[in-house]
């Protein structure tokens, strides 16, 4: 990764190696290193990714002595549940996890009539320092491993498969990397997680790449690097302001890569992938919700393969930042639509359960 994309967290012990950290070839090699036949790797992967089990007692197609050893070495526990909050009659579940070193991360499962979306964290904390974001104000603790990211989805998949979420047994159809952290600042682990989540069973969870969205505040070299991977995942750019003067304040990385550069990289990604770019825009009262800013945004996006996702800000306790007035939100939407821009206002699930990213972790700390 280019030097300008290296965001260094404090030195900490690494998470234990896990099956989900490895591609199929790496798993076979790891199993062989343990003195077992390489085909055991596929058996182990089938249990974890297809059957969603990690308890060796349930792996009855493996000899007892083998299963205990393989599970101990390649399926170590990664995330311990700390707290779970539910909303929307149980169809929204926010989970707080503690990693092996005490780091706290969050994930959210949201069940809709036609889909199930999982919002996952890619870092413990975040180093982007956006002032309106609870995670950004907490700072960066460390990057998550590929397996720690995948385990958030596996845990959600288990809950769905067991019928623990209202609506009966189901499957996760969509993954959004919009939880704690800046995904493209943890590029290698996030890319590995995308592969594990989308590889067909038994090598992965078999979720369609088109159901995966990777968000970024605008790390331009990493966006270009992602475009070269040949994936069909959606790119989401957390823009939050169409002008550099305000975006320098709201998204400090804009001091390095300006709006024009960020959007240029987004259009290159759209051209390469054929996927429409999602422009994420948190509406903040009297800060970025003026009609003239909507007009400017409309001019920047007109004729581009883009969709604007307006996000009513979920305010954090004690913050001066709060959601726009309903009438200002409606005026912003109309101004964008007048420019022919596709726009939606995000469903604000989870407000009553500290739904904003980082709020559960902040309360626990």
TrEMBL record:
Catalytic reaction equation(s): adenosine(37) in tRNA + 2 reduced [2Fe-2S]-[ferredoxin] + 2 S-adenosyl-L-methionine = 2-methyladenosine(37) in tRNA + 5'-deoxyadenosine + L-methionine + 2 oxidized [2Fe-2S]-[ferredoxin] + S-adenosyl-L-homocysteine; adenosine(2503) in 23S rRNA + 2 reduced [2Fe-2S]-[ferredoxin] + 2 S-adenosyl-L-methionine = 2-methyladenosine(2503) in 23S rRNA + 5'-deoxyadenosine + L-methionine + 2 oxidized [2Fe-2S]-[ferredoxin] + S-adenosyl-L-homocysteine
Coiled coil: none
Compartments where found: Cytoplasm
Annotated EC: 2.1.1.192
Catalytic residue list: 106, 357
Keyword terms, alphabetized: 4Fe-4S, Cytoplasm, Disulfide bond, Iron, Iron-sulfur, Metal-binding, Methyltransferase, rRNA processing, S-adenosyl-L-methionine, Transferase, tRNA processing
4Fe-4S keyword on record: yes
A Pfam family hit: Radical_SAM
Residues of the Radical SAM core domain: 112-352
Enzyme class: transferase
Principal place of residence: cytoplasm
Binding site for S-adenosyl-L-methionine: 181-182, 215, 238-240, 314
GO molecular function, one term: tRNA binding
GO terms of biological process kind: rRNA base methylation; tRNA methylation
Cofactor: [4Fe-4S] cluster
Role summary: Specifically methylates position 2 of adenine 2503 in 23S rRNA and position 2 of adenine 37 in tRNAs.
Similarity remark: Belongs to the radical SAM superfamily. RlmN family.
Miscellaneous: Reaction proceeds by a ping-pong mechanism involving intermediate methylation of a conserved cysteine residue.
Protein name, as recorded: Probable dual-specificity RNA methyltransferase RlmN
Source organism of this protein record: Allonocardiopsis opalescens
